[in-house]
Amino acid sequence: MGFLSMCNDIVTLVKPDGTVIEKIKANVQPEMIFIYDNKLPLEEGDKIYRPLPNGLVEEYDVIDRGFYAAFHQIQAHYQAKVRKSASIKNEKFQQITNIYNLNGSQARVNISSNDNSVNTLEQNPEIFDHILKALEKISDKEVKADAIEIVSEMKGVVGKPAFKEKYQSFISTLANHMAIIGPFLPALTSFL
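^ that's the sequence the OP posted. Answer follows.
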């Protein structure tokens, strides 16, 4: 048992190619995640998602996988150095080339400049039909049924205060399926 008993977090690993590995036991710290599954194909550039009790999901970028082989009583494990995706980059990583993938009609990049533009956003309720189609990829029938119900409820309360609650329920229910719902989050947050 040992150190594995300290792994009280359940995380999801998403590879750059879209591969998703769910239900990984881990110990999440602010800048490091400990994982005692030495068969896990963890690499730099992967993303790790941790659902929180409040319905939000933390997203981490793997900077250094930090694999350690078994040594005496300590089993093989990862001490992955991570950074929250929304946090400010550490200065030593500023030399990395930045690649910007922009999506949506409101996408823009401002580097060391002010953005004085005004957005006029036309919300597209058809997004819910696209989400329902994407949910077909979920193999867990119970999760899929819950998600479909929540999407229908969200569609019915667009523009109302209840939308936020339905959105949080949607994120919480599908926290382990970020690869499927991730592309829709910007459109959904525009309804908040």
